[in-house]
């Protein structure tokens, strides 16, 4: 059936082409009067170029095209939604905490809003890894302070061994690495909560005859932005220089984002009030 | 018959104490390496090492020594994949 139809269309097309062509003009120069072939048949209808069939075919093709474009648009939007979701998922690490500092004062995470935070979890009886990491963190903070981009970063040490590491001990321990660092402890529940928020694993080992033990724990430094959001983490494999570079990049991005957000808001205000507010 | 003066310490090791412990450990490890891991040739250094570090740390470092040796061997000699017999 479809073969038959296409044959009819083809035949009609051939006839039309032959009829349209005016052979008298083949050898004509530019001065010769050129006569366009006269159309003595209607455009639309049985013998015209536009028939119900061509309209139908065009319609089907057009509809297909539009559907495809809509599909592409939908796909693009889905991609954006996924990206937004990924960014939201990132924020699930971290969150507010309430702990105790060296003078037994309550320290809330909100106090650090407006400042970047570099947080490390460990314990004072740690044989080698924590001291190495804390020395690295001190170096990172010192080097960051020399950079123009730096907008203030607070080094924070949180113990995963609240039984032995009282607030006073933690404070004494951390000050040996850097006088700028803050050491935090708290009740077992408080430590458990902050560790859960930051996805920190910790597990005290078996106690020996002297009641001494080693706490196995996650070795990760966490970077939190001035809005209290977790931004990045640095494992043991990262050097101090690499961490500094990463943090500077995050600080730069943060400033840019906040900058564009500010100008966007100002633009909106401008268009709403109809006046121009000059931004310096 | 372990001789140890650090074990009774309730508080953490200070920076100086840590450095002392680590360097005594490194001396002992050096001795082990140059003597083909024969510990009886390094008893003196072992005593100093054990007296400068908490018992738990000594245990931890001993495990670490074996692990590092194993890692070194793997990197040097490679390893045989499990499925190849």
TrEMBL record, chain A:
Transmembrane region(s): 50-72
InterPro entries: SCO1/SenC, Thioredoxin-like_sf
Keyword Transmembrane helix annotated: yes
Name of protein: Uncharacterized protein
Alphabetized GO MF terms: metal ion binding
Pfam assignment, any one: SCO1-SenC
Keyword vocabulary terms for this entry: Copper, Disulfide bond, Membrane, Metal-binding, Transmembrane, Transmembrane helix
Listed GO biological process terms: mitochondrial respiratory chain complex IV assembly
Amino-acid positions noted as binding Cu cation in the UniProt annotation, renumbered to this chain: 126, 130, 217
GO CC entries: mitochondrion
Family per record: Belongs to the SCO1/2 family.
Disulfide bonds: 126-130
TrEMBL record, chain B:
Entry keyword annotation includes Mitochondrion: yes
Principal location: mitochondrion
Gene Ontology cellular-component annotations: mitochondrion
InterPro entries: COA6, COX6B-like, CX6/COA6-like_sf
Keywords: Disulfide bond, Mitochondrion
GO BP: mitochondrial ATP synthesis coupled electron transport; respiratory chain complex IV assembly
Tagged with keyword Mitochondrion: yes
Compartments in which it is found: Mitochondrion
Spans traversing the lipid bilayer: none
Protein name per UniProt: Cytochrome c oxidase assembly factor 6 homolog
Organism: Macrosiphum euphorbiae
């Amino acid at each position: 059936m479809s073969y038959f139809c296409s044959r009819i269309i083809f035949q009609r097309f051939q006839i039309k082409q032959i009829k349209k062509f005016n052979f008298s003009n083949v050898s004509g120069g530019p001065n010769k009067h050129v006569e366009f072939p006269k159309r003595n048949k209607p455009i639309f209808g049985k013998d015209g170029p536009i028939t119900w069939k061509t309209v139908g075919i065009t319609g089907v093709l057009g509809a297909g095209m539009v559907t495809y474009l809509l599909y592409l648009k939908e796909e693009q939007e889905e991609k954006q939604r996924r990206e937004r979701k990924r960014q939201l998922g990132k924020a699930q690490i971290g969150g507010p905490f309430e702990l105790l500092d060296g003078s037994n004062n309550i320290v809330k995470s909100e106090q650090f809003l407006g400042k970047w935070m570099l947080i490390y979890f460990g314990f004072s009886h740690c044989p080698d890894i924590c001291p190495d990491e804390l020395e690295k963190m001190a170096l990172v903070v010192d080097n960051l302070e020399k950079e123009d981009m730096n907008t203030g970063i607070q080094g924070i040490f949180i113990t995963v061994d609240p039984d032995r590491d009282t607030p006073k001990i933690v404070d004494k321990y951390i000050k040996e690495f850097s006088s700028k660092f803050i050491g935090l402890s708290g009740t077992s529940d408080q430590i458990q909560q902050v560790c859960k928020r930051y996805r920190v694993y910790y597990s005290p080992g078996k106690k020996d005859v002297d009641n001494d033990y080693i706490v196995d724990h996650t070795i990760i430094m966490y970077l939190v932005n001035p809005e209290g959001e977790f931004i990045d983490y640095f494992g043991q494999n990262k050097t101090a220089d690499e961490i500094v570079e990463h943090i500077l990049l995050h600080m730069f991005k943060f400033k840019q984002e906040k900058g564009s957000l500010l100008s966007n808001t100002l633009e909106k205000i401008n268009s709403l009030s109809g006046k121009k507010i000059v931004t310096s | 018959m372990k001789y140890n003066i650090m074990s009774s310490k309730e508080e953490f090791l200070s920076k100086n104490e840590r450095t002392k412990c680590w360097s005594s450990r490194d001396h002992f490890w050096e001795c082990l390496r140059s003597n083909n891991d024969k510990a009886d040739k390094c008893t003196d250094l072992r005593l100093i090492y054990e007296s400068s570090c908490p018992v738990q740390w000594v245990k931890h470092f001993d495990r670490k020594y074996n692990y590092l040796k194993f890692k070194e061997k793997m990197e040097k000699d490679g390893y045989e994949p499990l499925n190849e017999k």
